[in-house]
Amino acid sequence: MNWPFILSCFEAMSHSLLFMTYVAVIFLFVYSWLRGNAQGELSTLYWLSLGIIVSSVAVHVGGHFFHFMPASDGYIVLAIAVHSLLIAAMLLLMYRLLPIISFILDLRRWQTVEQVKAKLRRKEKEQEETQFALRNSEDRFRSIFDQAAMGIAIVNVDGLILDANQAYYDSFVDSVSGLPQRYFFDGVDLEGSAKDKVILSELFRHKNSPYGYTKRYLRKNQSALWFNVQLSLVEPKASDQTPYAIAMLENITQQKQTEQVLIKTQERLQHLLQVRADQISQMNEELSWQSSHDHLTGLLNRVAFERHLTSTLKSLEHNPQITKHTLCYLNLDRFKAINELGGTLAGDEVLRQVSKLIESRCRQTDQLARLGSDEFALLLHQCPIEQAQKVAESIVELIQDASFHWEGHEYTLSVSLGLVPINNGFGGDATEMIMVADAACTVAKKRGRSRIHVYESNDQEFAKYRSEAQWIQKIKTALERDGFSLYVQSILPLCEEASGYRRCEILIRMLGDDGEVISPGLFLPAAERYHLMTQIDYWVIENTLKYLAEHESPEMKKGDCYSINLSGMSINDDSLVDFLQTQFERYPVPTEHICFEVTETVAISNLSRANEVIQSIRAMGCQIALDDFGAGMSSFNYLKYLPVDYLKIDGSFIKDIVDDPIDHAMVETINRIGHVMGIKTVAEYVSNEAILQKIKHIGIDYAQGYCISRPIPLSREQAQLT
């Protein structure tokens, strides 16, 4: 027999079965690893498979060495027998593995079917959930649609209402028809209907959604129902369904009515604002007019007149050949007598009548102003000095021949005028020109009343007034640079109840360029004449309060008092009371330590104004002294109307009281009347011991003069107190 051939066949068969055994073992190993099962029968099969694999490997290794041995039939038969056993073992293993593999394959197929079924069940569940959600969505939409407070309608391209909620129909219960609408544009006017059709057409044609606008319907009473309309296009996905529009209507009738009310209110407010603006404009015009006019006569005031005069002087710089303007300064003669005899009301009325008379002699191109109590200025444009003299003469004659009436009384007046030709040769400003005209008027008064005096550049009488003009500039410089110094003069209490208290009067001095102290008698007359006293008074008040607030001595007693003078210009200044209040707020000095002195002449020249200011100052807590009492006295009756605390008897009665029985009697009478009225008395100009003893005997309360103390700087007085 051909044993080598048979052995080759057995080797080939064992190799094939061995490969299948490898695959089966690997399959079982992976499957058991994935399933986590390595026990029981599978464990036995593992060991059997491994044994076969080891044996097969051994046989094949042995067969490899067999080829190097001498050929023998015995060895070949032995190898065939071994391969037969190995093939039988592998067939047995396959026999045992085939059911398991079959089962595993059937199990995998079963698992695949179950997964498909599970997927189908999940899809069915998802479809059911989708259908349920769709039904819920439709129910919610219907619920929202039916219960919405806003009117909702479904409309086709022709405007036909396919469906609408109850709120939509309820919105039109009060419409013209009162019936449910069939078309979206029912119940509106022709213009509104056409608008609805155009909008629907545009919406369906161009598919521009959403679209909003305001729509108006008419009520039965012809009033309007207003709605905000929002149109949105809906295009169904199904091809057999037609697009439709959803219209949402919000009733804004109340909002529209509110807007109308707001519009009317705004129009009314605008009207009121316009009225107020007109009033403010009118008030501004009035204030502007008041700031440039005299409140009593309606004429220009000093500030406005100086502005006009300055403009005229500047025009000469551009037109030096023009020399035809003239400045007139007018001062009424004996006007003070009218105030004293008839009172300030009579004087005011006479001033108004005089102003009318002077105006009657003026042209429209001329400017007339009231500069002071009884002082006027007239600027004659394009009027040479010769013609101006004729105008001045006519004014003099007119006032001299006129009679002025007030409450059944008749008064007569005269006027003096000073004329100044306006030309390039003057060399001064408006203020200096007015000063020169005033000086010319003063010269006219001195030469006799109802006179006219024309200024000439070589006039020697004007040298004095040129000097005053220089003082004016020095005063302005001192005000700007604090070139003044405060002095005090002690006031001695003569009665026991006032003893122990410190009283003094605040005085002012000017400091020269070299530090010299300049007496007030040199610069105050110029300040009074040229209306700078108010600025000086305000400087004294502010700096006194400032100094006392910063250096007030701890020993200062409640009865201590500092007296400050107020000029007539300050009394007549409308801002005086406000200025005092501001200064007392800025410098916390107790008001009871301050006394303001007002001269008798100032007080009686404008009694009502003086009384008003005095009342306001006393309301702040300050005291009031009537200074120079007796100098211009015509009647003690004035004291009834002036609530003062002190009477400072004029020095003209005090200086000769020792030798002059009339002065003694006057002082005694003033003191007695003052005490009867509860007013303390002060004697000024007490220059020696004899006068001091005399006034003590009379019963005067206080004394002031060189016998008591000379004026000293305020800083030194404070140093003495400390």
From the N-terminal CA to the C-terminal CA, the straight-line distance is 161 Å
CATH topology of the largest domain: TIM Barrel
- Quaternary state of the chains: single chain
Instruction: Output the CATH class name of the largest domain.
Output: Alpha Beta
Low-pLDDT regions: none
Main sheet makeup = 8 strands, mixed, barrel
Shape: elongated
Residues in β-strands, percent: 15-25%
If helices are DSSP runs of H or I spanning 4 or more residues, what is the number of helices?
22
The whole-angstrom Rg is 62 Å
Residue share in helices? 40-55%
Number of domains as seen in the coordinates: 4
Q: Please give the number of β-strands.
A: 22
Would you identify the CATH H-level superfamily of the largest domain? EAL domain
CATH architecture of the largest domain: Alpha-Beta Barrel
The whole-number mean of residue pLDDT values reads 81
Structural class comes to: alpha/beta
Strand order of the largest sheet: 13-14-16-17-18-19-20-21
Overview of this protein structure:
This protein is α/β, with parallel strands linked by helices. The chain folds into four domains: 136 residues, no CATH class; 104 residues, PAS domain (Beta-Lactamase, 2-Layer Sandwich); 157 residues, Alpha-Beta Plaits (2-Layer Sandwich), CATH 3.30.70.270; 241 residues, EAL domain (TIM Barrel, Alpha-Beta Barrel). 54% of the residues lie in helices and 17% in strands. The protein is built from 22 helices and 22 strands. A hairpin with a 5-residue loop joins strand 3 and strand 4.
